[in-house]
């Protein structure tokens, strides 16, 4: 990686013109981010930004809904009492959470619903497990 960066820096120094230097600098930064694993962050951030633009909800409501979904997933993963093969998805829209998927018994279904209902900002849970 070090020789790669040295070669790129040498190319930047050798190029004439400010526009070309800016282009190459941008390219170097982009490649560095991709090699560092930040591409997922950039792509994910862009996708989230685009989804907010086309959504009728206020951006804070979208943010709260995403926060609720992440909290529900985290609670599901932390719960060691559940069968590890349950398949559950959480969708939050205006703080109403839809739970879909498959569980192995009624106790797991009720436990997931109770966990989800206890998340802050959740106004209602629709359990379709």
Give me the secondary-structure topology.
Layout: H1 2-14, H2 18-35, H3 39-53, H4 59-78, E1 87-93, E2 96-102, H5 106-117, E3 124-128
Parallel strand pairs: 2-3
Antiparallel strand pairs: 1-2
Word description of this protein:
The chain is an alpha+beta fold and 129 residues long. It contains 5 helices and 3 strands. The chain has helices at residues 2-14, 18-35, 39-53, 59-78, 106-117; strands spanning 87-93, 96-102, 124-128. Strands 1-2-3 form a 3-stranded mixed beta sheet. The model has no long low-confidence stretch (mean pLDDT 78).
Give descriptors for this structure.
elongated, 15% strand, alpha+beta, 129 residues
Give a summary of the structure in a few sentences.
This protein is an alpha+beta fold and 129 residues long. It is 60% helix and 15% strand.
Using DSSP, what is the number of strands? 3
User: From N to C, what is the helix and strand string?
Assistant: HHHHEEHE
Q: Strand percentage, roughly?
A: 5-15%
Low-confidence stretches: none
Mean pLDDT: 78
Helical fraction: 55-70%
Based on CA atoms alone, the radius of gyration comes out at: 23 Å
Instruction: For the record, give the distance between the C-alpha atoms at the N and C termini, rounded to a whole number.
Output: 49 Å
Q: Tell me, briefly, the overall form.
A: elongated
Largest sheet: 3 strands, mixed
Structural class: alpha+beta
State the strand order across the main sheet: 1-2-3
Q: What is the number of helical segments per DSSP (H or I, 4+ residues)?
A: 5
